[in-house]
Design brief:
435 residues; alpha+beta; seven-stranded antiparallel beta sheet; 10 helices; 9 strands; 31% helix
Length: 435
């Protein structure tokens, strides 16, 4: 390669690396056609793909319900609990014309997949986590056929591939100032919420069932004054345990929109996006470094200082979120209504002392042990080895007390010991030094 062209290539790749390192928060949207990603070209390997294959082979049938269509069958086959149901009434989906406070959209989820359904809607929506591609989107027509197959949808990326999803195909939990029609007052702004968000900014445009003491949230109420949306009376939506006076709950599989389910959904959505972004980040960094190595005649596996920093920046960001280092604290006890908390906590896995990362606290914070259960997900396990190895090393340094930096100061000695013991017993791919 001519020297001038070589220098131009190096400048271009270096600029890209700097951009990514500076913008892990998602303000930079990752190009899905990057050679190391190929989001639209590569086949998906997720829970929906597996279900489609079983349906096509005749190994499973999806019964059609006259009211719910394929929704109950899809939830059953994907092992998505009914207790996870949450109801969103803001017009913030492609089925917006059908959504209103009288006809909210129902969402259900587990670790691998989220399912959306609107009464009277023409499709069942699905978002499934592919362990390398990220979130892949599907719809299933609500028409009775012999072998109903979910279709992959690229048009969902118009909303689900943006700064709000960390620049990758991902999930969004949005809080808005809703009018009584369910239309958001966009001039008032919106909040993208996760476990770091104060409760007073959460769940605008959602129904919320459960008790939470004196803490207030934006759920269950409307912005009555368009000019003063911040004057919503949040007390009218507080500690609601029954939605029957607000919506016809008999039209849904569950009468609940559980507050604990919402807390978990928010954490999981951002964690899913972050895992995807880190995987993309590392794969792009290695791909770009290989081009640099070819140009310079360096060894093919040489990472270089800038690429190492790029990987470290991404993995450290994931680690901080995974350990809830910036979680917004709870001021009062939170209790749901649907039994979701109990059903979720039973999933384990459990260590020798009967502890699990799925156990809840719900008095000071969401989980009893502040390390994300998403560490058990296939998406985490399939992170590039460079990312996963660094996360395990840094995580070990934190839980053994070797890292005493300010970033992890909220983790007590008891927290660190419990996390280390739980993971040592339950995460079987940990490096030998963990033992």
């Amino acid at each position: 390669m001519p020297k001038r062209a070589c220098l131009a290539l190096l400048c271009l790749l270096a600029a890209g690396a700097f951009k990514l390192a500076a913008d892990l928060d998602g303000s930079w949207v990752v190009p899905l056609d990057h050679p190391s990603i190929g989001y639209m070209k590569k086949p998906a390997h997720d829970a929906i793909t597996r279900l489609n294959e079983r349906v096509a082979k005749g190994e499973v049938t999806l019964p059609f319900d006259d009211h719910f269509g394929y929704l109950p069958a899809v939830l059953r086959e994907l092992h998505v609990p009914l207790s996870s149901q949450v109801l969103v009434f803001s017009k913030t989906s492609f089925q917006a014309p059908r959504i209103s406070p009288h006809n909210p959209r129902a969402l259900y989820f587990n670790d691998e997949v989220s399912i959306g359904w609107v009464p009277g809607g023409e499709v069942v929506e699905a978002a499934a986590v592919d362990p390398t591609l990220g979130v892949v989107f599907y719809t299933l027509d609500q028409e009775k056929v012999a072998k109903p197959i979910m279709d992959r949808r690229g048009d969902c990326l118009q909303c689900h591939h943006s700064g709000g999803t960390l620049g990758v195909p991902g999930l969004v939990v949005r809080s808005v100032f809703p009018e009584r029609s369910g239309m958001p007052l966009f001039h008032a702004g919106t909040f993208l919420t996760d476990d770091r968000s104060p409760m007073k900014e959460r769940w605008g445009g959602w129904f919320v069932t459960g008790t939470h003491g004196s803490q207030l949230h934006m759920g269950n109420v409307f912005a009555e004054d368009k000019e003063k949306p911040n004057d919503m009376d949040l007390t009218k939506g507080a500690n609601v345990t029954d939605l029957k006076s607000r919506v016809d709950t008999s039209a849904y599989l569950s009468p609940h929109s559980d507050i604990v389910s919402l807390l978990v959904l928010e954490h999981q959505a951002y964690m899913t996006n972050l895992i995807t972004r880190v995987g993309y980040e590392v794969n792009m960094a290695v791909h770009d470094q290989q081009a640099i190595n070819v140009a310079l005649g360096s060894p093919p596996d040489d990472l270089g200082e800038s690429t190492t920093r790029r990987i470290s920046n991404a993995t450290d960001t994931l680690l901080r979120y995974m350990l809830f280092t910036e979680e917004s604290p709870l001021r009062d006890t939170v209790k749901g209504t649907s039994g979701f908390a109990e059903e979720f906590a039973k999933q384990g896995p459990w260590d020798a002392k009967g502890r699990s990362l799925r156990q809840f606290d719900l008095q000071r914070r969401t989980f009893r042990y502040p390390c994300s259960y998403m560490i058990y997900s296939e998406a985490f396990d399939r992170l590039p080895s460079l990312a996963r190895d660094r996360i395990y090393r840094r995580l070990w340094e934190v839980v053994t007390g070797k890292d005493t930096t300010k970033a992890f100061a909220r983790l007590t000695a008891e927290d660190r010991t419990a996390i280390r013991e739980i993971l040592t017993d339950t995460k079987h791919d940990l490096p030998a030094y963990w033992q």
